[in-house]
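Project outcomes to date are best conveyed with an example. Our students and postdoctoral researchers have been running inverse folding experiments weekly, and each run begins with a structure described purely in tokens. The record below, which covers 461 residues, was selected by the lab manager from last quarter's runs and is presented without edits.
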């Protein structure tokens, strides 16, 4: 395509917050959206999910996905509900996982309405879901698979997906709009993901949009991996309690299982029953087991995250049976920030007993139950009622598959030329601001933190 006469980038999400990733690229009137994530956490941002989309969704020709986490894909059915009929491009593994995420999200939207009606605690009369399972089913046929490091012709613009090493199928997306280019990092993995092939270096670009979830910190690298988890398991089993591990169904569940396998094999924890509770997590586990995708690292086998006294609670009946068990066990259930899903039932059951332990296995966004527990709250609200927090709360920081600040700097440094501007996004304000300053100090680049709704030109001066 020729050089555009007008090209802009609008930050519709993950600007000023760590969720809701959405970037609108407009080229001479054509609109492409990179990621379509749902806002999570603080009420201010959750309300944005319900706001009118800034442009008519029917005017968007393509959506380019970096990966399948809800804060990058779960707004898609809302776009479809309001008129989007274009193409959704993603890697094969992202498509497989996004299908799971979206169907679960649609079900949870409908369930939340049902719960609110039954409990009478909704402020809306009548309460309505953001979208329905029917909207999800209308979304799935729009997906088209892309290969790794291959230019995909979008009818003028071209895009390329490069491994990001964050979760199965995760990618950075390089977009060429005719003589001008922009690179979206997506969520970047660490330099050594325990299960997946390493991230790769994408082509450089005139503009780079880089995440900063952990832009203000470094991950610990202890001599004894996951000692926080091991110690929590030993203490809890000794006092006859149970452990609940809120874990994202996609990737985090597999990482927790992998850690438990390693700890059990090495004798650092006793062999204790482990339950994965939730159809979404179990369906995701099946995708990870699909060796035809070629995503697992060369020295990883399926046994490395399933060699346990493992039970899979697929049905609601299976889940409810866990209420009758009093023996020590470990329950892994989503969501990872304790914002929805079956984990809420386990938390309601276990939080009030000092014998039990909740292990937080990842980042807890501001405004979530997970963040409240992490900060020592004495009670959390579940299904309209406050539940006392007497159980031990433990955080294991080693599960994060977001790159820390040094990982992000290394990824940027590997690009073969600096961009005109680096936009630092997908981080809470403090993390994004500190990372932008570090880039300026160490790399000498122009690095800015855009605000929500900001529009910038992609044309040369």
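After processing, the design step wrote out the following sequence:
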């Amino acid at each position: 395509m020729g050089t555009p006469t007008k090209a802009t980038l609008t930050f519709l999400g993950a600007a000023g917050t760590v969720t809701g990733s959405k970037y609108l690229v407009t080229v001479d009137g054509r609109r492409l959206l990179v990621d379509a994530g749902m806002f999570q956490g603080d009420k201010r941002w959750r309300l944005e999910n319900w706001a009118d989309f800034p442009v008519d969704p029917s005017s968007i020709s393509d959506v380019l996905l970096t990966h399948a986490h809800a804060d990058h894909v779960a707004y898609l059915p809302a776009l479809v509900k309001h008129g989007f009929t274009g193409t959704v491009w993603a890697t094969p593994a992202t498509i497989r996982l996004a299908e799971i995420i979206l169907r679960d999200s649609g079900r949870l939207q409908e369930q939340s309405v049902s719960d609110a009606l039954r409990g009478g605690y909704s402020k809306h009369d009548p309460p309505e879901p953001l979208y329905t399972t029917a909207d999800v089913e209308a979304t799935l046929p729009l997906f088209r698979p892309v290969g790794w490091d291959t230019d995909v012709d979008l009818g003028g613009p071209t895009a390329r997906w490069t491994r990001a090493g964050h979760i199965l199928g995760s990618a950075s997306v390089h977009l060429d709009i005719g003589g001008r280019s922009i690179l979206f990092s997506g969520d970047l993995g660490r330099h050594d993901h325990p299960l997946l092939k390493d991230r790769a270096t994408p082509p450089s670009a005139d503009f780079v949009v880089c995440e900063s979830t952990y832009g203000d910190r470094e991950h610990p690298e202890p001599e004894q991996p996951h000692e926080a988890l091991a110690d929590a398991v030993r203490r809890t089993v000794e006092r006859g309690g149970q452990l609940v591990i809120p874990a994202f169904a996609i990737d985090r569940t597999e990482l927790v299982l992998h850690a438990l396998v390693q700890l059990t094999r090495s004798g650092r924890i006793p062999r204790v029953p482990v339950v994965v509770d939730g159809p979404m997590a179990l369906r995701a586990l099946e995708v990870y087991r699909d060796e035809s995708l070629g995503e697992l690292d060369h020295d990883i086998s399926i046994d490395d995250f399933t060699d346990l006294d493992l039970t899979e609670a697929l049905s609601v009946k299976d889940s409810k049976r866990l209420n009758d068990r009093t023996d020590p066990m470990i329950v892994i259930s989503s969501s990872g920030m304790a914002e929805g899903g079956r984990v809420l039932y386990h938390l309601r059951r276990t939080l009030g007993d000092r014998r039990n332990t909740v292990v937080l296995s990842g980042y807890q966004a501001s405004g979530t139950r997970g963040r409240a527990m992490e900060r020592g709250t004495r009670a959390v609200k579940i299904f309209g009622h406050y539940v006392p927090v007497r159980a031990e709360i433990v955080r294991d920081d080693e599960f994060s598959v977001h790159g820390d600040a040094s990982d992000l700097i290394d990824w940027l440094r590997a690009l073969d030329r600096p961009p005109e501007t680096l936009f630092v996004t997908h981080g809470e304000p403090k993390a994004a601001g500190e990372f932008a300053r570090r880039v300026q100090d160490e790399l000498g680049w122009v690095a800015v933190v855009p605000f929500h709704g900001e529009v910038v030109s992609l044309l040369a001066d």
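The chain has a mean pLDDT of 93. The chain has two domains: 7-217+401-457, 227-399. The training component of this project remains on track.
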